[in-house]
Amino acid sequence: MPEISGFAFPNDIHVTWSLMIVMYPYITGFVAGSFIVTSLYHLFGRQEFKPVARLAMATSFAFLLVASLPLQLHLGQPQRGPYVIITPNFTSAMAGFGILYSFYMLVLVLELWFVWRQEIIDRARRSRGFKRTFYATLALGTYDTSPEAVEIDHKAIMILAGIGLPAACMLHGYVGFIFGAIKANPWWSTPLMPVIFLLSAAVSGIALLIIIYQVFAKLDRRPVVATCVQALASWLWFFLILTITLEELELIVMAYEKSESWLIISELLTTRLSFSYVTMQMIVGGLIPFILLAVVVLMNRYLHEKVRNTLATVAAFLTLIQVFAMRWNIVIGGQLLSKSLRGLRSPYEPEIFGREGVLMAIALFVAPFVILWIFDRVLGIEEPEGGADHPPAAPTAGQAAAGHAP
Amino acid sequence: MSDCHDGCNGSRREFLSGTLKLAGGAVVTVIGGAALASSGGSDGAEASHPGGGEYDWNEHLWAYLVDTTKCIGCGSCVRACKAENEVPDGFFRTWIERYVVGMNDSHVDSPSGGMDGFPPVQVGFAATKSFFVPKICNHCRATPCTQVCPVGASYRTKDGAVLVDSDSCIGCGYCVQACPYGSRFIHPATHTASKCTWCYHRITKGLKPACVTVCPTQARQFGDLKKEGDPVRGTIEHERVQILQGHLLTEPQCYYTNLDKEVR
Amino acid sequence: MDHARHVFRIVLLVAIILAVVLLARGFLVPKSYGLYGRYRGASVAEQMNLRPPMHAGAAACADCHEDQAKKRTAGAHKNVSCEICHGPLGAHVKADGSVVKPPIDRSFTLCARCHRKIEGRPAKFPQVVLDQHVNGPVEGKVCLQCHDPHSPKP
Q: Looking at per-residue confidence, does A336 or B33 come out higher?
């Protein structure tokens, strides 16, 4: 039995939303964050992100495939999960999420298909037997790579990216809404919640890309493009500043207003969450990467490329911790305080094994990377040498061998 | 004067019976299978109300009333609720809180939800008053718990009870988070949401909820807002009554008299 | 639009998937869903008949136990339901009519739940400060040796 300090409503001593519900916004955050990066290139034509544009899109897809799993694993009756789509109750933020998730999945898969279409067709032409059937099916049987078809692809990509960006932002803003719209819980109930979730999603997405971009480059023996890491680091710094500012503003307003819940929330932060909030979210994951990134951005000219990349990578790791700590402090922290506003329960310790345990959480975090690896095997994440993928530039007419499949 | 509201007029009745005929098979099966339907359960397809029996939910609107000055903290209600509703150990559909209050400090406890009564308590301040507050689900009219249910497994009936359909509940726990009163929990055996039903299986048969039935001091009362001369309705209509956490605008249908400022 | 064939194909594929999902949904919605609101209508009747009522109230007990009932209604415990001390009627008389001997709680703790002087009880309610009871401290002694629970006198 958990120990209670003060008085908690007798049903309020259970942490109903487990580690899985911490993983759910964490993973969804990468979906939105990396899609923002890919949009910076595809929609806004920021050339410095070209080296990570395809990787970012694939990352968004890999995490999206996993994003609903923690929710499923958490359900008391997982086999009834599809009811969220079958009999949705539209006044529920969660039912909306089911539909938004499906919609974003559709948009992203379509965009992926258009971006990778030439690659799929190439592979269909090159392979034989079962593999050929597989790629031909993926290409939906049309092998049209004529300049006109490629031009159509680019238009489709632009349109889908234009729909995808707001969809991705909505998807993650919505996750924040799921918490922010619970008026029963003063630690959650703030209109800032969706905004904070969205900004920290951008933080986690960019941070993750800084790391996996360099790892993939090493594995492929490609050079790491310095301007790309530099640009990612600047944007990471920008979003980190926004996130931390809003996270702090939320508290400052609560404290200054002396709202009825401030007493118990300040106790929550300084006792039960002192490590995960003050130490991890604010200092290790906030202040330190802020300084490191400030060095990377402001002293760019004086730094050796290796030093700069290392600093950016370390900062990226720390911000990943920051975002996880933030999810933890929101989801778990909100359940440690009783709605009586008179008591806190003892810290929650997730189980190790089991459906909602630590090992499962690690598996969920690793799974997208396995998906990425498979993706790379099947479709190739990096575009082949001399390939054409670029909204801002004109389409190259290099691929002459256009034709229709039988 | 009629107590009947919109549910009684002809067109709606016809519409409902039409819909019922369409989906009647399932309803009739359920009713037929229910051995304890008080009477005429088999004729469900003709009824404008679920169950099809004598009980018509259009004719009732339930409300709960607690007089905190009467509660002696014996815990009979909590034990009766457990026996009546097979409430699992460590979870509560109803409970009693004890407030020991001084000028500058207060102490609240609820050992085992008050199920076994209360022990003497020593507080580190000069207590000037003390009292018990029974708590149940407030069966709010604008309840956030049914609002957030993603699958419509939680709903408010026409006679005012907030119920959970444990056959549809996916066990996401969102309603548990959304209830400001801590009235809901995830049942450890069924892994679905569970809560006070105002003993819906009793009140639809003319009985009072178990907690009200056993309360030795009438601290807990249950009444019908659609019935003329109902004492609970009278109190709510004419006396000064309070609700819990009124600022959240959930419109609780569990009313209190003589509530203290310390109670949330 | 000769070169947009692949676009048509993928749009068609999406349309087919959507149609399948919608069709499947049509089959999977529970029958009585939406009958009274956005929930499974049959659930209401299920809740009504979830289980037989366990507690029946003092009047039901009086059907068989007239003497005790009369005595009780004449005394100070007239509002104390039989089922507080004797357990719910549903456990005493089963649904099939068979009778099980109910537990009779004669313990000190049962009486103390209501009558021990503690913080929280209304001042007017009869309470005993255990140390100051007429025959010395009473903790653990059986109250029923002197007090008749069906018609208690102070």
A: A336
In C, which residues are within 8 Å of B93 by CB distance?
none
List of chains touching A (3+ CB pairs within 8 A) = B, C
Inter-residue contact C29 to A86 (CB < 8 Å) = yes
Rounded Cα–Cα distance for residues A179 and A172 (Å)? 12
Average pLDDT of the residues in C112-126: 93
Residue A403 lies in a domain: no
Tell me the CATH class for B61-93+135-264.
Answer: alpha beta
Q: What is the mean pLDDT of residues A96-119?
A: 92
Res B24 pLDDT > 80: no
The answer to whether C4 contacts A152, with C-beta atoms less than 8 Å apart, is yes
The DSSP call for residue B255 is E
Is residue B165 within 8 A of residue C39, CB to CB? The reply is yes
CA dist., res. B142 & res. C58, Å (int)? 35
Answer whether A287's CB lies under 8 Å from A279's CB: no
In 10 A of CB B231, how many CB atoms?
12
Contact criterion met (CB < 8 Å) for B75 and C44? no
Residue from A84, A87, A158 whose CB has the most chain C CBs within 10 Å, to mutate: A87
> Mapped to the 3 state alphabet, what secondary structure does B7-76 carry?
HHCHHHHHHHHHHHHHCHHHHHHHHHHCCCCCCCHHHHHHCCCCCCCCCCHHHCCEEEEEECCCCCCCCH
Rounded distance between C-alpha atoms, residue A153 and residue A158, angstroms: 9
Domain ranges of chain B: 6-59, 61-93+135-264
- Residue-range domain boundaries for chain C: 2-48, 58-145
Q: What residues pair up with C128 in beta bridges, in sequence order?
A: C116
How far apart are the C-alpha atoms of A164 and A170, rounded to whole Å? 10
The alpha carbon of residue C16 is apart from the nearest alpha carbon of chain B, in Å, by: 25
Other beta carbons less than 10 A from residue A30's beta carbon? 27
The ipTM estimated for the assembled molecules is 0.89
Does A2 fall in a domain?
no
Q: Which of A9, A76, A184 sits opposite B186 (nearest CB)?
A: A76
From the list A17, A22, A112, the residue with the least C-alpha distance to A64 is A112
Is B1 an interface residue toward C (CB < 8 Å)?
no
- Structure tokens given for C125: 């309610």
Between CA A320 and CA A243 the distance in angstroms is 13
Chain B: residue nearest A71 by CA?
A: B172
